[in-house]
Amino acid sequence: MNEATTGNGDGSTTVAAGVSPALAEPPREKLTKKAITADHPTWCPGCGDFAVLAAFYKVLEKRNLEHEKIVTLAGIGCSSRFPYFVNGHGAHYIHGRAVPLASGISLARPDLHVFLFGGDGDGFSIGGNHLDHGARKNINMTYFIMDNFVYGLTKKQTSPTSPIGFKSKTDPTGAIDQPVNPMKKLISAGATFIARTHAAQVPHMIQMIERAFDHHGFSVIECLSECVEFYPDVFDPANPKKGGSFELIQEKKWDNTPEDELRHDVTDELAAYKLAQLPFPGVFGVFYETDRPTKNALEKKWIETTREKTGNASDLEILQKTFDRMK
Amino acid sequence: MSERPDTAAQTAAPNGERADLRPENIQDAVIRLAGNSQDGIQTAGAFLARLAGRSEHDVMTYMTIPATISGGPSIFQVRIGSGEVLSAGDEADFLVAFYQHSYQDHIGFLREGGVLLYDSDNVEPNLDDKRFFYVGVPITGLTVEALGGTAKDKGKNIFVLGLIAKIFNLDAEKLKRVITEKFSGKDQSVVNTALMAFQAGYAYPVGNVLTKHYRFEHIPRASGRAQITMDGNQALAYGLIAGGVRYGAGYPITPWSSVMEVLRRELPKYGGIFVQAEDELASVSIALGCSYSGYLAVTGSAGPGISLKAEAIGWASMAEIPIIICNIQRGGPSTGLPTNVEQSDLHQAIFGSHGDSPRVVLAPASVEDCFYIAIEAARIARKYSTPVFILSDTSLATRIEAFDEPDLSKLMVDPKPDLTPRQTHKPYPIDQITHHVPPGTRILDGKYPLLAGLEHDEMGHPTGSPKLHMAMTAKRRNKLRKLAEEIPVPEIYGNQEGDTLLVGWGSTYGPIHDAVKMARDNGEKVGALHLRHLHPLPNGLEKIFDKFKRIVTVEMNDQGVYGFGQLATILRARYCEPKITSFTKTDGLTFRVKEILDGVFKGKSFLARHIPREGAEVIHQAGAENVKTLKEVVPQGVG
Q1: At what angle do helices A128-137 and A98-108 cross, to 10 degrees?
Q2: Do B414 and A26 touch (CB under 8 A)?
Q3: Average pLDDT for chain B
């Protein structure tokens, strides 16, 4: 999602407008974990989300992003408290609507790094429609979904990803509704970068966040992040330390070797869909990645051609001309 | 046309283009075109409005559109005046009926002594009703004839425009220019066809059926500025642009859609983007994202969509994000009356989110005001970092008015965000008005702000402190009190003190003022107060209320369980003043002046100033046997 850092989507370059950089801009220090750490997280001890936060700090440090250009956003849920724990510009929005909020920021300010955090209820249930449309429009942002298969903040109700049979306060005899398959949903919606990771695998998380960040477009990572209070141990089958196996997607190296034939082509939608069919706990890594123009780029192009047609006239000249036609 | 034997009667002086008709000076005419929505009567009406605007006449239009997808009865009413035109006119002076149903449904709106111009191929009027003048023209047949038959009866609207141009002595050359401009984006043959239809209508010998043509008196306009002609939604959209709004998002809904269509098309010219979102919740959220990023943004809808946006607007109150929300009101509740007018969303605008969520509510009084109120909304949203509602409605959205061209050089706002680094920044200082710094701004002490929907401390971090919640709630409310101090107290129109004060808001401005004019002509001591700022109200209204014996709000909404319209309810709560009552209605139509007078002054009847003069002669086309001597045709509106 790391697009050009100049220009406001309006053909202008207004960053620090009117300020002499020599005077106003003190030298930058390297971005440190300390600089980007805010409130102590309110998550329960042992929550998978701590590891996600740690991985995120690591990526920011490693990439040494300009501090003021980091924007973290979230909707509602345990994981959606994320922005409070990151010292940077950010907003804690309403339930399920963080994708459109992030879309507005991303479109109006392509110079910013827009990171979005949330959970399975926020992303796949109340915000499910926005996920689909953010994906099809390919709006530039990095969206990290911490999936714990349960509503945690409201204390154990069935979530859109709870498996059939899961006993919750709203399904005391076990969940009966078919759960969402996040990978399938994202592939069919048209997301251009789709990956899956596990909160117990910090190096893999970092790798996925970095790749998602480097991708131009709507990048989504689903991360299995355990709720120790309301759905403990559910992700152990994918955790080698707990006797499970963390099976990685082997991506094609395009090296013409016979073993490469068996590897996954991340641009192959059908192959990605087949991976998404695998029974729980499934596989981890990049399911799908494609290079499709972002809405940001398409809108920018439209602006440029439209501006050219006006002869790059001033705002006043353009509106005056419109009014002259209405006389 | 010479083969038509029934246009027999000849009147005086047939030589010369218009010598067949005697001129008559008029100041005001209401012309109602009634047909089906696919006949293009809106287009013809809009041409008349634009021409009137260019000819420095005041003009106001009134339109009804069926809610059906295509077809259905539809009208367009144009009132053209040489003086100030405030309302679309209670009664038509001139009714054009394309079909039998148009005649039947609208003859009741034709004033006594008015002219019915009807398509004699489709309409059989009751000629025994001697209250009207009948002018039958085979509009369909003549249009088909003029256009060579390939266009079927398409072009009837432009043919009628030609007829009207002749009868009202309009500037045909200017009108042709307006037509040519309108169709200039299309194939040249479209322009030619339209001009042929116009010419055919214009050349029709109306002298055979009408004895005179009318000429609008020229009254020089005070401002000396050129006039522009547009509808309320256009004025709103361009006002937003002038006010520095460059981003926005919306979802299609009647009657808001045309605002988003204009913005989607126009904003890229200014380097901005308007997003068509997947739903109403997304559209307000996208707009809030744009605003958060430093560019004040707009979203809008009609009632159903505003209901869906309510939670996000509450967030804007809590997080103190500037945003403009346009509600182009229509009949409610639920899907209600999608193409009719109502003012029933006032309470929703003021109170329509959960919790104490202060926001500003403004309402434009006219098409012109749609432009200026959008600029004001943008200014207030920025200054007070608050959501601002603009409550327009169906009648403002669709009607076309001519108004003085705004001085854009004095009005244009540059929307560029200020990203100057700050030493330190508190997003929510307890005792000051919040002004956010957009993301991308360096905060040199390293403490970055978080904008939150949870109750928060001065840095935006969550707090459950009872003291802080009270203090922050007060902070969010107090900025609206601050705003109230700077809102000018509106001037009273008419009597400055007296028996009755009519209070209105929104699109009822015109009919209320016309009603006051007429009531005063008939000796009533009455004034009118029009509120553009509905929340917060301007300070000092109590001093105005003290000067009148009774205060009556005139509103297009229901009187509710307790018997008072929505504004009256607010005013009664605010001023504890029992003399405040309301006159309300919910028929989905704009107020007629007479309705207001009948409702406010029960049992009294008022006379219009104009009294028809005697002596004119009108011949209708059905034959010489129908030649009648009737009262003069002096098109005039009320007041």
Answers
A1: 30
A2: no
A3: 88
